[in-house]
């Protein structure tokens, strides 16, 4: 038997697509919370307050708005569990994450025979996968045409596809769902807490899922925000779904949502952690205090600074998200993406390659919304580039960054 020494994990510069850099206030709430069980009154109060703050963050009056314990894919599992075997679904992946979501959809929509035929990668006849190439955005026209052709019950799209850094046409998706009488489901993992939008403005979408660790910035494993319209909940009420823990109606009870209404008491669903609730509650307080609109404009402002800086190093940016820059290295360094990222990561500079082809470099700015933090990222990335043999004058790059911020100020 081996008992290992205590696990020490260093502080790195989390400059990838996620997780974002955790605010000390969130960690403080996590660590300073007393032990209390999942039905203790302040824990329950925290859940109910968090639910109400989440409605503000999502921009919704949906009663069925709450957090699913776990990571982004836990929330997605909850919303996608509305899909039953044999349901007709059209999914619009354009990168790694919407590709994984499409796999979840294929698993849920597969009949027993279809699942048995290829258990880890089922290909049910009732699911159509409409691929948009990496680096491009899903357009409303693509969605409209596919829904007209396939006439599904459900449609699925990611709002912001973090694998390629692309923003998809949410309005086009919602409008097409309305036009064709389809229930839309959206992965808003990367956009919630970064972009300024109200989900109630997209009535074609009946269910949304996000995550704790990106724009919401509550990594200390907490909650994946989800929201369902009454139409979605009515469908689950009528047909049921094949999960207890991620059941859209049953899970909501612990957040004080019973029979379509807010109630003052929780109904036990699972043993929620007082530490997680306190951290999540604080993260929501921080984000709403900062202001959704201001946060969105700060992300856009700092993303532009980073984008210009990497372009001045000779990189080509192919993303349009505001929390992440996805880039091609200059020709001279093509093929060295993974080495460059590995070198950076070995020094605690946590950037990422893309996880599916083509290989690109991803640099994120979650919770790095200051000129100093962006300068640190630019500095460290410039050093890695130069070490790999890039040709540029680092002082010029830094001067360019300085003048961007000076002009803006
Ligand atoms: C990060 C991400 C996920 C997965 O979230 P986890 O927290 O890793 O489970 C899903 N979809 C999108 C768009 C993401 O960016």
From TrEMBL:
GO molecular function: alanine-glyoxylate transaminase activity; L-serine-pyruvate transaminase activity
InterPro entries: PyrdxlP-dep_Trfase, PyrdxlP-dep_Trfase_major, PyrdxlP-dep_Trfase_small, SP_NH2Trfase/AEP_transaminase
The protein's required cofactors: pyridoxal 5'-phosphate
Endpoints of the signal sequence: none
Gene Ontology terms: biological process: glycine biosynthetic process, by transamination of glyoxylate
Keyword Transmembrane helix appears in the UniProt entry: no
Record SUPFAM superfamilies: PLP-dependent transferases
Residue list for modification N6-(pyridoxal phosphate)lysine: 214
Keywords linked to the UniProt accession: Aminotransferase, Pyridoxal phosphate, Transferase
Keyword Transferase on entry: yes
Protein name: Putative Aminotransferase
Binding site for substrate: 362
